[in-house]
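Escalation from tier 1.

The customer reports that the assembly of two entities below gives different C-alpha coordinates on two consecutive runs. Tier 1 could not reproduce it. I'm attaching the input and our single run for tier 2 to review.
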Amino acid sequence: MSNWLIYRTFWDLTVSGLVLGLIYALVALGYTMVYGVLRLINFAHSEVFMVGTFGVLVSLTKVFGIPIFEGGQYPFRTGFVLIGILLASLLIGMAVSGLGAVAIERIAYRPLRGAGDAYGAVALAFVTGLILSFIISSDIGTNLIIAAVVAGPLSILYLRIFKRGRQAPRLAFLISAIGVSMALAEAVAIWGPDERVVYQTPRILEKKVLFKFLGADVRIDYVIVAIGAVLMMTSLLLFVNRTRLGRGIRAVAQDAETSRILGVNVDLVILVTFLLGGAMAGGAAMMFTLVYDQTRFNIGFLLGVKSFTAAVLGGIGNIRGALLGGVVLGLAENYGSAVFGGQWKDVIAFVVLLVVLMFRPTGILGESLAKARV
Amino acid sequence: MLLEVNDLHVFYGRIEALKGISFNVNDGEIVTLIGANGAGKTTTMRTVSGVRSVAQGSIIFDGQDITKMPPHERVKLGICQAPEGRGIFPGMTVRENLEMGTYVRGGNAVEKASDLEHVFTLFPRLQERITQLGGTLSGGEQQMLAIGRALMSRPRLLLLDEPSMGLAPMLIAQIFQIIKQINSNGISVLLVEQNATQALRTAQRGYVLETGHVVKEGSGQLLLDDPAVRAAYLGG
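Tier 1 run:
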Protein backbone atom coordinates (compact mmCIF):
# COMPACT_ATOMS: atom_id res chain seq x y z
CA MET A 1 0.00 0.00 0.00
CA SER A 2 2.99 2.28 -0.24
CA ASN A 3 1.38 4.16 -3.05
CA TRP A 4 2.12 7.71 -4.02
CA LEU A 5 -1.54 8.54 -4.09
CA ILE A 6 -1.83 8.00 -0.37
CA TYR A 7 0.28 11.08 0.23
CA ARG A 8 -2.00 13.34 -1.67
CA THR A 9 -4.61 15.09 0.30
CA PHE A 10 -8.31 14.52 0.05
CA TRP A 11 -8.89 17.85 -1.67
CA ASP A 12 -6.17 17.20 -4.24
CA LEU A 13 -7.97 14.01 -5.13
CA THR A 14 -11.27 15.86 -5.26
CA VAL A 15 -10.04 18.49 -7.68
CA SER A 16 -8.40 16.08 -10.11
CA GLY A 17 -11.31 13.66 -9.73
CA LEU A 18 -13.76 16.38 -10.73
CA VAL A 19 -11.75 17.22 -13.82
CA LEU A 20 -11.54 13.59 -14.86
CA GLY A 21 -15.23 13.22 -14.07
CA LEU A 22 -16.20 16.13 -16.32
CA ILE A 23 -14.31 14.53 -19.19
CA TYR A 24 -16.14 11.23 -18.56
CA ALA A 25 -19.40 13.16 -18.41
CA LEU A 26 -18.84 14.84 -21.78
CA VAL A 27 -18.14 11.50 -23.43
CA ALA A 28 -21.04 9.88 -21.57
CA LEU A 29 -23.45 12.38 -23.17
CA GLY A 30 -22.88 10.75 -26.56
CA TYR A 31 -23.72 7.29 -25.25
CA THR A 32 -26.78 8.51 -23.44
CA MET A 33 -28.24 10.59 -26.27
CA VAL A 34 -27.81 7.91 -28.90
CA TYR A 35 -29.35 5.40 -26.52
CA GLY A 36 -32.23 7.82 -26.00
CA VAL A 37 -33.23 8.07 -29.64
CA LEU A 38 -32.18 4.66 -30.98
CA ARG A 39 -32.14 2.39 -27.90
CA LEU A 40 -28.68 1.46 -29.11
CA ILE A 41 -25.38 1.41 -27.23
CA ASN A 42 -23.00 3.05 -29.67
CA PHE A 43 -19.85 1.16 -28.74
CA ALA A 44 -17.98 2.98 -31.49
CA HIS A 45 -18.37 6.19 -29.48
CA SER A 46 -15.04 5.50 -27.72
CA GLU A 47 -13.32 5.83 -31.09
CA VAL A 48 -15.22 9.02 -31.79
CA PHE A 49 -13.34 10.39 -28.78
CA MET A 50 -10.05 8.88 -29.99
CA VAL A 51 -10.46 10.43 -33.43
CA GLY A 52 -11.07 13.76 -31.71
CA THR A 53 -7.77 13.60 -29.82
CA PHE A 54 -5.98 12.99 -33.09
CA GLY A 55 -7.89 15.84 -34.68
CA VAL A 56 -6.56 18.09 -31.93
CA LEU A 57 -3.04 16.68 -32.30
CA VAL A 58 -3.01 17.24 -36.05
CA SER A 59 -4.51 20.71 -35.76
CA LEU A 60 -1.81 21.74 -33.26
CA THR A 61 1.18 20.21 -35.02
CA LYS A 62 0.19 20.51 -38.68
CA VAL A 63 -2.25 23.43 -38.90
CA PHE A 64 -0.54 25.66 -36.36
CA GLY A 65 2.89 24.08 -36.85
CA ILE A 66 3.68 23.78 -33.15
CA PRO A 67 6.48 21.30 -32.34
CA ILE A 68 6.51 19.11 -29.22
CA PHE A 69 9.64 20.87 -27.99
CA GLU A 70 11.07 24.25 -28.98
CA GLY A 71 14.77 24.49 -28.20
CA GLY A 72 14.48 21.97 -25.39
CA GLN A 73 11.50 23.82 -23.90
CA TYR A 74 7.77 23.22 -24.04
CA PRO A 75 6.22 25.40 -26.78
CA PHE A 76 4.28 27.59 -24.36
CA ARG A 77 2.09 30.28 -25.85
CA THR A 78 0.54 33.20 -24.04
CA GLY A 79 -2.19 35.81 -24.33
CA PHE A 80 -4.53 35.96 -27.29
CA VAL A 81 -2.40 33.55 -29.33
CA LEU A 82 -2.92 30.93 -26.65
CA ILE A 83 -6.66 31.58 -26.40
CA GLY A 84 -7.00 31.53 -30.17
CA ILE A 85 -5.15 28.24 -30.54
CA LEU A 86 -7.08 26.63 -27.67
CA LEU A 87 -10.41 27.70 -29.13
CA ALA A 88 -9.45 26.62 -32.64
CA SER A 89 -8.24 23.21 -31.49
CA LEU A 90 -11.45 22.80 -29.46
CA LEU A 91 -13.57 23.57 -32.52
CA ILE A 92 -11.49 21.27 -34.72
CA GLY A 93 -11.72 18.46 -32.16
CA MET A 94 -15.49 18.92 -31.94
CA ALA A 95 -15.84 19.02 -35.72
CA VAL A 96 -13.69 15.92 -36.30
CA SER A 97 -15.52 13.90 -33.64
CA GLY A 98 -18.94 15.19 -34.61
CA LEU A 99 -18.48 14.39 -38.29
CA GLY A 100 -16.85 11.08 -37.35
CA ALA A 101 -19.92 10.12 -35.34
CA VAL A 102 -22.22 11.11 -38.22
CA ALA A 103 -20.11 9.05 -40.64
CA ILE A 104 -20.31 6.03 -38.35
CA GLU A 105 -24.07 6.39 -38.20
CA ARG A 106 -24.35 6.63 -41.98
CA ILE A 107 -22.10 3.70 -42.73
CA ALA A 108 -22.58 1.30 -39.86
CA TYR A 109 -26.08 1.87 -38.44
CA ARG A 110 -28.33 3.50 -40.97
CA PRO A 111 -28.26 0.66 -43.48
CA LEU A 112 -29.17 -1.71 -40.64
CA ARG A 113 -32.17 0.46 -39.78
CA GLY A 114 -33.44 -0.14 -43.28
CA ALA A 115 -32.84 3.49 -44.23
CA GLY A 116 -29.50 3.22 -46.03
CA ASP A 117 -28.80 5.93 -48.59
CA ALA A 118 -26.38 6.64 -51.43
CA TYR A 119 -23.70 8.25 -49.21
CA GLY A 120 -23.65 5.22 -46.95
CA ALA A 121 -23.55 2.86 -49.92
CA VAL A 122 -20.61 4.62 -51.56
CA ALA A 123 -18.65 4.87 -48.31
CA LEU A 124 -19.31 1.27 -47.42
CA ALA A 125 -18.36 0.15 -50.93
CA PHE A 126 -15.13 2.12 -50.72
CA VAL A 127 -14.22 0.57 -47.38
CA THR A 128 -15.05 -2.90 -48.67
CA GLY A 129 -12.86 -2.28 -51.70
CA LEU A 130 -10.05 -1.06 -49.48
CA ILE A 131 -10.16 -4.17 -47.32
CA LEU A 132 -10.29 -6.46 -50.37
CA SER A 133 -7.33 -4.63 -51.92
CA PHE A 134 -5.04 -5.77 -49.12
CA ILE A 135 -5.25 -9.30 -50.50
CA ILE A 136 -3.47 -8.10 -53.64
CA SER A 137 -1.14 -5.37 -52.43
CA SER A 138 -0.01 -3.57 -49.32
CA ASP A 139 1.00 -0.34 -51.01
CA ILE A 140 -1.40 2.40 -49.88
CA GLY A 141 -1.53 4.10 -53.28
CA THR A 142 -2.45 0.89 -55.09
CA ASN A 143 -4.97 0.06 -52.38
CA LEU A 144 -6.75 3.38 -52.78
CA ILE A 145 -6.94 3.00 -56.56
CA ILE A 146 -8.33 -0.52 -56.29
CA ALA A 147 -10.84 0.64 -53.67
CA ALA A 148 -11.99 3.53 -55.87
CA VAL A 149 -12.46 1.22 -58.85
CA VAL A 150 -14.32 -1.43 -56.87
CA ALA A 151 -16.47 1.17 -55.08
CA GLY A 152 -18.44 2.05 -58.25
CA PRO A 153 -20.19 -1.23 -59.04
CA LEU A 154 -20.22 -2.32 -55.40
CA SER A 155 -22.08 0.79 -54.26
CA ILE A 156 -24.81 0.09 -56.81
CA LEU A 157 -25.13 -3.41 -55.37
CA TYR A 158 -25.26 -2.05 -51.81
CA LEU A 159 -27.86 0.50 -52.80
CA ARG A 160 -30.02 -2.28 -54.22
CA ILE A 161 -29.80 -4.14 -50.91
CA PHE A 162 -30.53 -0.95 -48.97
CA LYS A 163 -33.62 -0.31 -51.10
CA ARG A 164 -35.29 -3.38 -49.63
CA GLY A 165 -35.43 -1.48 -46.38
CA ARG A 166 -35.04 -4.50 -44.15
CA GLN A 167 -34.61 -3.81 -40.47
CA ALA A 168 -31.74 -5.81 -38.98
CA PRO A 169 -32.07 -7.53 -35.59
CA ARG A 170 -30.76 -5.72 -32.49
CA LEU A 171 -27.64 -7.83 -32.22
CA ALA A 172 -26.48 -6.77 -35.69
CA PHE A 173 -26.14 -3.15 -34.51
CA LEU A 174 -23.94 -4.26 -31.64
CA ILE A 175 -21.67 -6.28 -33.88
CA SER A 176 -21.49 -3.41 -36.34
CA ALA A 177 -20.59 -1.02 -33.50
CA ILE A 178 -17.78 -3.19 -32.20
CA GLY A 179 -16.52 -3.73 -35.74
CA VAL A 180 -16.37 -0.01 -36.52
CA SER A 181 -14.70 0.62 -33.19
CA MET A 182 -11.91 -1.89 -33.85
CA ALA A 183 -11.53 -0.80 -37.46
CA LEU A 184 -11.02 2.84 -36.48
CA ALA A 185 -8.54 2.11 -33.71
CA GLU A 186 -6.56 -0.27 -35.90
CA ALA A 187 -6.59 2.13 -38.84
CA VAL A 188 -4.94 4.76 -36.66
CA ALA A 189 -2.50 2.18 -35.29
CA ILE A 190 -1.52 0.99 -38.76
CA TRP A 191 -1.44 4.26 -40.69
CA GLY A 192 -0.37 6.70 -38.01
CA PRO A 193 3.32 7.66 -38.27
CA ASP A 194 4.10 6.39 -34.76
CA GLU A 195 1.82 3.38 -35.07
CA ARG A 196 1.03 1.92 -31.66
CA VAL A 197 3.24 4.24 -29.63
CA VAL A 198 1.97 7.05 -27.39
CA TYR A 199 1.84 10.39 -29.21
CA GLN A 200 2.82 13.47 -27.22
CA THR A 201 0.68 16.50 -27.92
CA PRO A 202 2.32 19.95 -27.88
CA ARG A 203 2.05 21.49 -24.43
CA ILE A 204 1.10 25.03 -25.36
CA LEU A 205 -0.41 25.87 -21.99
CA GLU A 206 1.90 26.44 -19.07
CA LYS A 207 0.06 24.68 -16.28
CA LYS A 208 0.49 27.13 -13.48
CA VAL A 209 -1.35 26.80 -10.23
CA LEU A 210 -4.03 29.46 -10.31
CA PHE A 211 -5.17 29.27 -6.71
CA LYS A 212 -5.37 26.94 -3.73
CA PHE A 213 -8.66 25.32 -2.85
CA LEU A 214 -8.54 24.00 0.72
CA GLY A 215 -4.89 23.27 0.22
CA ALA A 216 -5.35 21.61 -3.15
CA ASP A 217 -3.61 23.00 -6.21
CA VAL A 218 -6.08 24.22 -8.81
CA ARG A 219 -4.21 24.42 -12.08
CA ILE A 220 -5.23 26.62 -14.97
CA ASP A 221 -5.95 23.64 -17.23
CA TYR A 222 -8.39 22.30 -14.60
CA VAL A 223 -10.22 25.60 -14.61
CA ILE A 224 -10.40 25.61 -18.41
CA VAL A 225 -11.79 22.06 -18.43
CA ALA A 226 -14.38 22.92 -15.79
CA ILE A 227 -15.58 26.08 -17.54
CA GLY A 228 -15.52 24.48 -20.98
CA ALA A 229 -17.38 21.36 -19.87
CA VAL A 230 -20.07 23.29 -18.02
CA LEU A 231 -20.56 25.63 -20.98
CA MET A 232 -20.84 22.74 -23.43
CA MET A 233 -23.32 20.86 -21.24
CA THR A 234 -25.44 23.95 -20.64
CA SER A 235 -25.66 24.70 -24.33
CA LEU A 236 -26.56 21.09 -25.03
CA LEU A 237 -29.37 21.17 -22.47
CA LEU A 238 -30.61 24.47 -23.89
CA PHE A 239 -30.54 23.04 -27.40
CA VAL A 240 -32.50 19.93 -26.41
CA ASN A 241 -35.08 21.84 -24.42
CA ARG A 242 -35.49 25.07 -26.33
CA THR A 243 -35.03 24.47 -30.04
CA ARG A 244 -37.26 22.82 -32.58
CA LEU A 245 -34.77 20.08 -33.42
CA GLY A 246 -34.15 19.57 -29.71
CA ARG A 247 -37.85 19.00 -29.21
CA GLY A 248 -37.65 16.56 -32.10
CA ILE A 249 -34.89 14.66 -30.27
CA ARG A 250 -37.01 14.46 -27.12
CA ALA A 251 -40.06 13.40 -29.12
CA VAL A 252 -38.20 10.61 -30.94
CA ALA A 253 -36.77 9.42 -27.62
CA GLN A 254 -40.27 9.13 -26.19
CA ASP A 255 -42.13 7.69 -29.16
CA ALA A 256 -40.41 7.41 -32.53
CA GLU A 257 -43.46 6.19 -34.46
CA THR A 258 -45.75 9.00 -33.29
CA SER A 259 -42.97 11.50 -33.96
CA ARG A 260 -42.87 10.37 -37.58
CA ILE A 261 -46.64 10.62 -37.88
CA LEU A 262 -46.46 14.20 -36.60
CA GLY A 263 -43.85 15.00 -39.22
CA VAL A 264 -40.59 14.76 -37.32
CA ASN A 265 -37.87 13.79 -39.78
CA VAL A 266 -36.49 10.94 -37.69
CA ASP A 267 -33.40 10.37 -39.85
CA LEU A 268 -32.46 14.03 -39.45
CA VAL A 269 -33.01 13.85 -35.70
CA ILE A 270 -30.76 10.80 -35.47
CA LEU A 271 -28.08 12.55 -37.53
CA VAL A 272 -28.20 15.61 -35.26
CA THR A 273 -28.05 13.40 -32.18
CA PHE A 274 -24.88 11.71 -33.41
CA LEU A 275 -23.44 15.08 -34.40
CA LEU A 276 -24.08 16.59 -30.97
CA GLY A 277 -22.89 13.52 -29.05
CA GLY A 278 -19.77 13.41 -31.23
CA ALA A 279 -19.08 17.11 -30.74
CA MET A 280 -19.26 16.65 -26.96
CA ALA A 281 -16.77 13.79 -27.20
CA GLY A 282 -14.57 16.00 -29.39
CA GLY A 283 -14.64 18.71 -26.75
CA ALA A 284 -13.71 16.11 -24.16
CA ALA A 285 -10.88 14.97 -26.43
CA MET A 286 -9.42 18.48 -26.59
CA MET A 287 -9.65 18.82 -22.80
CA PHE A 288 -8.09 15.41 -22.31
CA THR A 289 -5.07 16.33 -24.42
CA LEU A 290 -4.85 19.66 -22.61
CA VAL A 291 -4.59 17.94 -19.23
CA TYR A 292 -2.65 14.79 -20.10
CA ASP A 293 -0.65 15.96 -23.17
CA GLN A 294 -0.91 12.65 -24.97
CA THR A 295 -2.99 10.29 -27.04
CA ARG A 296 -2.77 6.81 -28.50
CA PHE A 297 -4.66 4.61 -30.97
CA ASN A 298 -6.43 2.79 -28.13
CA ILE A 299 -6.93 5.80 -25.88
CA GLY A 300 -10.67 5.58 -26.44
CA PHE A 301 -11.18 2.06 -25.21
CA LEU A 302 -10.85 2.33 -21.46
CA LEU A 303 -12.10 5.90 -21.36
CA GLY A 304 -15.05 4.89 -23.50
CA VAL A 305 -15.97 1.95 -21.31
CA LYS A 306 -15.75 4.16 -18.23
CA SER A 307 -17.83 6.90 -19.80
CA PHE A 308 -20.40 4.31 -20.74
CA THR A 309 -20.30 3.22 -17.10
CA ALA A 310 -20.86 6.85 -16.10
CA ALA A 311 -23.88 7.04 -18.41
CA VAL A 312 -25.39 3.88 -16.93
CA LEU A 313 -24.51 5.05 -13.43
CA GLY A 314 -26.41 8.30 -13.89
CA GLY A 315 -29.31 6.63 -15.68
CA ILE A 316 -28.84 5.92 -19.38
CA GLY A 317 -30.88 8.12 -21.67
CA ASN A 318 -30.70 10.95 -19.16
CA ILE A 319 -28.57 13.97 -20.04
CA ARG A 320 -28.14 15.27 -16.52
CA GLY A 321 -27.57 11.70 -15.37
CA ALA A 322 -24.53 11.55 -17.63
CA LEU A 323 -23.09 14.62 -15.93
CA LEU A 324 -23.76 13.25 -12.47
CA GLY A 325 -22.52 9.76 -13.34
CA GLY A 326 -19.30 11.15 -14.82
CA VAL A 327 -18.48 13.26 -11.79
CA VAL A 328 -19.35 10.48 -9.32
CA LEU A 329 -17.18 8.06 -11.25
CA GLY A 330 -14.22 10.44 -11.50
CA LEU A 331 -14.31 11.10 -7.76
CA ALA A 332 -14.85 7.47 -6.82
CA GLU A 333 -11.87 6.44 -8.93
CA ASN A 334 -9.58 8.97 -7.34
CA TYR A 335 -10.64 8.33 -3.76
CA GLY A 336 -10.67 4.60 -4.33
CA SER A 337 -7.19 4.51 -5.76
CA ALA A 338 -5.92 6.45 -2.75
CA VAL A 339 -7.46 3.94 -0.38
CA PHE A 340 -6.83 0.69 -2.22
CA GLY A 341 -3.82 1.69 -4.32
CA GLY A 342 -3.45 3.07 -7.82
CA GLN A 343 -3.36 -0.34 -9.47
CA TRP A 344 -7.04 -0.75 -8.51
CA LYS A 345 -8.08 2.45 -10.25
CA ASP A 346 -9.72 0.80 -13.25
CA VAL A 347 -11.42 -1.84 -11.14
CA ILE A 348 -13.13 0.74 -8.96
CA ALA A 349 -15.23 2.16 -11.79
CA PHE A 350 -16.83 -1.19 -12.42
CA VAL A 351 -17.29 -2.04 -8.76
CA VAL A 352 -19.18 1.24 -8.35
CA LEU A 353 -21.30 0.37 -11.37
CA LEU A 354 -22.11 -3.08 -10.00
CA VAL A 355 -23.08 -1.75 -6.61
CA VAL A 356 -25.31 0.99 -8.01
CA LEU A 357 -27.01 -1.36 -10.45
CA MET A 358 -27.69 -3.90 -7.70
CA PHE A 359 -29.63 -1.38 -5.67
CA ARG A 360 -30.89 0.93 -8.40
CA PRO A 361 -31.00 -0.75 -11.81
CA THR A 362 -32.15 2.40 -13.60
CA GLY A 363 -29.12 4.39 -12.44
CA ILE A 364 -28.96 7.27 -9.99
CA LEU A 365 -31.42 9.62 -11.70
CA GLY A 366 -33.10 6.88 -13.63
CA GLU A 367 -35.40 8.82 -15.89
CA SER A 368 -34.81 9.16 -19.58
CA LEU A 369 -33.70 11.65 -22.20
CA ALA A 370 -37.36 11.76 -23.03
CA LYS A 371 -38.08 13.45 -19.74
CA ALA A 372 -35.04 15.73 -19.78
CA ARG A 373 -36.06 19.08 -18.38
CA VAL A 374 -34.17 22.26 -17.63
CA MET B 1 -61.46 14.57 -54.44
CA LEU B 2 -59.11 15.10 -51.51
CA LEU B 3 -57.71 11.62 -50.91
CA GLU B 4 -57.73 8.80 -53.39
CA VAL B 5 -56.30 5.40 -52.51
CA ASN B 6 -55.98 2.95 -55.38
CA ASP B 7 -55.30 -0.77 -55.15
CA LEU B 8 -53.05 -0.47 -52.10
CA HIS B 9 -50.85 -3.44 -51.20
CA VAL B 10 -48.81 -3.30 -47.98
CA PHE B 11 -46.67 -6.00 -46.40
CA TYR B 12 -45.51 -6.63 -42.85
CA GLY B 13 -42.48 -8.80 -43.53
CA ARG B 14 -43.96 -11.60 -45.64
CA ILE B 15 -47.52 -11.12 -44.49
CA GLU B 16 -49.69 -9.08 -46.82
CA ALA B 17 -51.70 -6.81 -44.53
CA LEU B 18 -53.48 -4.87 -47.28
CA LYS B 19 -54.43 -6.82 -50.39
CA GLY B 20 -55.39 -4.12 -52.82
CA ILE B 21 -57.79 -1.76 -51.09
CA SER B 22 -59.25 1.33 -52.77
CA PHE B 23 -61.24 4.14 -51.21
CA ASN B 24 -61.53 7.90 -51.34
CA VAL B 25 -62.36 10.91 -49.22
CA ASN B 26 -64.03 13.95 -50.77
CA ASP B 27 -63.39 17.48 -49.62
CA GLY B 28 -65.35 18.23 -46.46
CA GLU B 29 -66.42 14.62 -45.86
CA ILE B 30 -66.22 12.29 -42.89
CA VAL B 31 -65.38 8.81 -44.15
CA THR B 32 -65.05 5.81 -41.88
CA LEU B 33 -63.30 2.48 -42.24
CA ILE B 34 -64.83 -0.23 -40.08
CA GLY B 35 -63.85 -3.83 -39.59
CA ALA B 36 -62.70 -6.42 -37.11
CA ASN B 37 -59.26 -6.61 -35.51
CA GLY B 38 -56.62 -7.41 -38.09
CA ALA B 39 -58.73 -6.23 -41.01
CA GLY B 40 -56.02 -3.69 -41.92
CA LYS B 41 -57.54 -0.47 -40.61
CA THR B 42 -54.54 0.76 -38.67
CA THR B 43 -52.18 -0.35 -41.42
CA THR B 44 -54.20 1.75 -43.85
CA MET B 45 -53.92 4.81 -41.60
CA ARG B 46 -50.18 4.36 -41.11
CA THR B 47 -49.73 3.97 -44.85
CA VAL B 48 -51.67 7.15 -45.57
CA SER B 49 -49.50 8.93 -43.00
CA GLY B 50 -46.43 7.50 -44.72
CA VAL B 51 -44.85 5.43 -41.96
CA ARG B 52 -45.51 2.16 -43.82
CA SER B 53 -44.16 1.72 -47.31
CA VAL B 54 -46.35 0.74 -50.21
CA ALA B 55 -45.61 -2.39 -52.24
CA GLN B 56 -48.12 -1.64 -54.97
CA GLY B 57 -50.84 0.88 -55.69
CA SER B 58 -51.02 4.62 -55.21
CA ILE B 59 -52.13 7.34 -52.82
CA ILE B 60 -53.20 10.64 -54.35
CA PHE B 61 -53.76 13.68 -52.14
CA ASP B 62 -55.34 16.73 -53.71
CA GLY B 63 -54.24 15.64 -57.16
CA GLN B 64 -50.65 14.99 -56.11
CA ASP B 65 -49.14 11.50 -56.00
CA ILE B 66 -47.80 11.05 -52.45
CA THR B 67 -47.23 7.28 -52.55
CA LYS B 68 -43.49 7.62 -51.93
CA MET B 69 -43.49 10.90 -50.04
CA PRO B 70 -41.89 10.88 -46.56
CA PRO B 71 -44.26 11.49 -43.61
CA HIS B 72 -43.05 14.99 -42.73
CA GLU B 73 -43.85 16.25 -46.22
CA ARG B 74 -47.33 14.76 -46.01
CA VAL B 75 -47.90 16.66 -42.77
CA LYS B 76 -46.81 19.78 -44.61
CA LEU B 77 -49.44 19.10 -47.28
CA GLY B 78 -52.10 18.84 -44.60
CA ILE B 79 -52.41 15.21 -43.55
CA CYS B 80 -52.17 14.68 -39.80
CA GLN B 81 -53.08 11.76 -37.63
CA ALA B 82 -54.17 11.11 -34.07
CA PRO B 83 -52.72 7.59 -33.94
CA GLU B 84 -54.09 4.45 -32.38
CA GLY B 85 -53.27 4.33 -28.68
CA ARG B 86 -53.07 8.15 -28.79
CA GLY B 87 -49.26 8.35 -28.93
CA ILE B 88 -48.99 10.99 -26.24
CA PHE B 89 -45.41 11.96 -25.32
CA PRO B 90 -45.50 11.01 -21.65
CA GLY B 91 -42.61 13.21 -20.55
CA MET B 92 -43.85 16.38 -22.24
CA THR B 93 -46.42 18.73 -20.80
CA VAL B 94 -49.81 19.16 -22.43
CA ARG B 95 -48.57 22.40 -23.99
CA GLU B 96 -45.40 20.76 -25.36
CA ASN B 97 -47.46 17.88 -26.72
CA LEU B 98 -49.75 20.33 -28.51
CA GLU B 99 -46.78 22.26 -29.85
CA MET B 100 -45.43 19.06 -31.39
CA GLY B 101 -48.38 19.44 -33.77
CA THR B 102 -46.75 22.59 -35.14
CA TYR B 103 -43.35 20.87 -35.53
CA VAL B 104 -43.47 20.82 -39.33
CA ARG B 105 -45.40 24.02 -39.92
CA GLY B 106 -43.33 26.11 -37.52
CA GLY B 107 -45.24 29.35 -37.32
CA ASN B 108 -44.74 32.28 -35.02
CA ALA B 109 -45.86 32.71 -31.41
CA VAL B 110 -49.02 34.58 -32.37
CA GLU B 111 -50.15 31.82 -34.73
CA LYS B 112 -49.40 29.16 -32.13
CA ALA B 113 -51.33 31.06 -29.48
CA SER B 114 -54.40 31.35 -31.69
CA ASP B 115 -54.19 27.66 -32.63
CA LEU B 116 -53.92 26.76 -28.95
CA GLU B 117 -56.95 28.96 -28.29
CA HIS B 118 -58.88 27.12 -30.99
CA VAL B 119 -57.98 23.72 -29.51
CA PHE B 120 -58.98 24.91 -26.04
CA THR B 121 -62.44 25.98 -27.23
CA LEU B 122 -62.95 22.40 -28.46
CA PHE B 123 -61.32 20.83 -25.40
CA PRO B 124 -61.53 23.19 -22.40
CA ARG B 125 -60.22 20.34 -20.24
CA LEU B 126 -56.81 20.58 -21.88
CA GLN B 127 -56.43 24.19 -20.84
CA GLU B 128 -56.86 23.19 -17.20
CA ARG B 129 -54.15 20.57 -17.62
CA ILE B 130 -51.74 22.67 -19.65
CA THR B 131 -48.68 22.29 -17.40
CA GLN B 132 -49.34 18.66 -16.54
CA LEU B 133 -47.22 15.87 -18.06
CA GLY B 134 -48.90 13.95 -20.87
CA GLY B 135 -48.33 10.64 -19.11
CA THR B 136 -50.41 11.70 -16.12
CA LEU B 137 -53.62 12.41 -18.06
CA SER B 138 -56.65 10.12 -18.06
CA GLY B 139 -57.50 8.13 -21.19
CA GLY B 140 -60.15 10.58 -22.32
CA GLU B 141 -57.88 13.56 -21.81
CA GLN B 142 -55.11 11.83 -23.72
CA GLN B 143 -57.49 11.25 -26.63
CA MET B 144 -58.47 14.91 -26.60
CA LEU B 145 -54.79 15.81 -26.52
CA ALA B 146 -54.04 13.53 -29.48
CA ILE B 147 -56.82 15.09 -31.56
CA GLY B 148 -55.89 18.60 -30.43
CA ARG B 149 -52.25 17.98 -31.32
CA ALA B 150 -53.20 16.84 -34.81
CA LEU B 151 -55.38 19.95 -35.23
CA MET B 152 -52.41 22.16 -34.31
CA SER B 153 -50.84 21.21 -37.65
CA ARG B 154 -53.84 22.86 -39.40
CA PRO B 155 -54.68 19.73 -41.37
CA ARG B 156 -56.92 19.49 -44.40
CA LEU B 157 -57.38 15.80 -43.76
CA LEU B 158 -57.53 14.57 -40.18
CA LEU B 159 -56.84 10.87 -39.64
CA LEU B 160 -58.39 9.47 -36.48
CA ASP B 161 -57.45 5.92 -35.51
CA GLU B 162 -59.83 4.42 -32.94
CA PRO B 163 -60.59 7.65 -31.08
CA SER B 164 -63.21 5.92 -28.90
CA MET B 165 -60.97 3.07 -27.78
CA GLY B 166 -61.05 2.47 -24.04
CA LEU B 167 -63.33 5.42 -23.27
CA ALA B 168 -66.50 5.55 -21.18
CA PRO B 169 -69.78 5.79 -23.18
CA MET B 170 -70.34 9.42 -22.11
CA LEU B 171 -66.93 10.41 -23.38
CA ILE B 172 -67.39 8.46 -26.61
CA ALA B 173 -70.51 10.47 -27.43
CA GLN B 174 -68.61 13.67 -26.65
CA ILE B 175 -65.67 12.72 -28.87
CA PHE B 176 -67.94 11.95 -31.82
CA GLN B 177 -69.73 15.25 -31.27
CA ILE B 178 -66.38 17.04 -31.45
CA ILE B 179 -65.42 15.15 -34.60
CA LYS B 180 -68.58 16.54 -36.26
CA GLN B 181 -67.72 20.00 -35.00
CA ILE B 182 -64.19 19.78 -36.43
CA ASN B 183 -65.65 18.60 -39.73
CA SER B 184 -68.08 21.51 -39.82
CA ASN B 185 -65.04 23.82 -39.82
CA GLY B 186 -64.13 22.37 -43.20
CA ILE B 187 -61.64 19.69 -42.19
CA SER B 188 -62.13 16.33 -43.90
CA VAL B 189 -61.92 13.33 -41.59
CA LEU B 190 -60.89 9.75 -42.19
CA LEU B 191 -62.08 7.78 -39.20
CA VAL B 192 -61.14 4.23 -38.25
CA GLU B 193 -63.40 2.65 -35.67
CA GLN B 194 -64.39 -0.58 -34.01
CA ASN B 195 -67.39 1.21 -32.58
CA ALA B 196 -69.10 0.82 -35.93
CA THR B 197 -72.56 2.12 -35.01
CA GLN B 198 -71.32 5.47 -33.81
CA ALA B 199 -68.83 5.74 -36.66
CA LEU B 200 -71.43 5.06 -39.35
CA ARG B 201 -73.83 7.53 -37.76
CA THR B 202 -71.18 10.21 -37.76
CA ALA B 203 -69.76 9.58 -41.22
CA GLN B 204 -71.25 10.42 -44.58
CA ARG B 205 -69.75 7.32 -46.14
CA GLY B 206 -68.14 4.13 -44.93
CA TYR B 207 -66.05 1.20 -46.09
CA VAL B 208 -66.06 -2.25 -44.52
CA LEU B 209 -62.63 -3.91 -44.35
CA GLU B 210 -62.09 -7.63 -44.01
CA THR B 211 -58.62 -9.25 -43.96
CA GLY B 212 -57.06 -6.61 -46.17
CA HIS B 213 -59.92 -6.18 -48.63
CA VAL B 214 -62.75 -3.67 -48.95
CA VAL B 215 -65.83 -5.88 -48.91
CA LYS B 216 -68.54 -3.22 -48.83
CA GLU B 217 -68.94 0.49 -49.25
CA GLY B 218 -71.73 3.00 -49.18
CA SER B 219 -73.32 5.83 -47.28
CA GLY B 220 -73.31 5.61 -43.51
CA GLN B 221 -77.04 4.98 -43.38
CA LEU B 222 -76.90 2.32 -46.10
CA LEU B 223 -74.27 0.35 -44.19
CA LEU B 224 -76.17 0.77 -40.92
CA ASP B 225 -79.21 -0.80 -42.59
CA ASP B 226 -77.28 -3.59 -44.30
CA PRO B 227 -78.23 -6.89 -42.62
CA ALA B 228 -74.79 -8.47 -43.18
CA VAL B 229 -72.98 -5.46 -41.71
CA ARG B 230 -75.41 -5.39 -38.80
CA ALA B 231 -74.80 -9.05 -38.09
CA ALA B 232 -71.03 -8.80 -38.29
CA TYR B 233 -70.21 -5.42 -36.73
CA LEU B 234 -73.21 -3.88 -35.08
CA GLY B 235 -74.21 -6.70 -32.77
CA GLY B 236 -77.23 -7.97 -34.73
